[in-house]
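Re: weekly structure request thread

Next one in the queue (211 aa):
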Amino acid sequence: MSSDEDELPGEDLVRFARRIGLERAAPGRYSALLSLNLLGGYLAEIQDPLKIVREIELLEAGQLGSQKAPIQNRYPPLKGLWHKHYMQDGMASLAQNVKKGLNRYKVPLFDKIVKEAHEAGEERFLEPHEIEAIIDDAVSGNRRRLAEKQALTGEWLMFAKHEGQNYYLTIANHRTETHQKVRSQIEQICFIEFPFLEALLHEAENPEGSL
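Done, posted below.
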């Protein structure tokens, strides 16, 4: 961010969107809801908005980005929309993926050490250097394994596709926010900004019907 970032709280959403490059990345195709969420995350010091803007730039360029490829939601109330994972900043995201890695892979290095000791018929204490290596394997090793499988868990950047272009709607914490809450926010704000959304979502949920 620029050196005069302390002025941000007094700026409106349009100026903020321009400052972080959102207007440049998707001119006229981002919602006030997204801008507000990015500003809130920035002011709360829990999210770098430039990271989400970078994901949008990559989507606009047809590139994969930091994690999984975009996924179209298949079930109501978000059926018909798309989401792209991105990694949230901070310890919460790290802890979530460490937990996921432990559940999926355990700690392979520790299992290896135990197996070797068992096969040798030994009972021994772990050496300090082994403890350090085990911790690294549990954190960095498992994160690497998840990344290789494109299985890192992140937040969602929600967007719609319309006439060959992406319209960026909001970001969502899909662990703590219900899909219905996200849908309600989109209806209240994004339907006004992008009138095609109402028909798009209705048709996705009722392929044989019409408005």
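The chain has two domains: 5-88+154-204, 91-148. The radius of gyration is 22 Å.
Next request, please.
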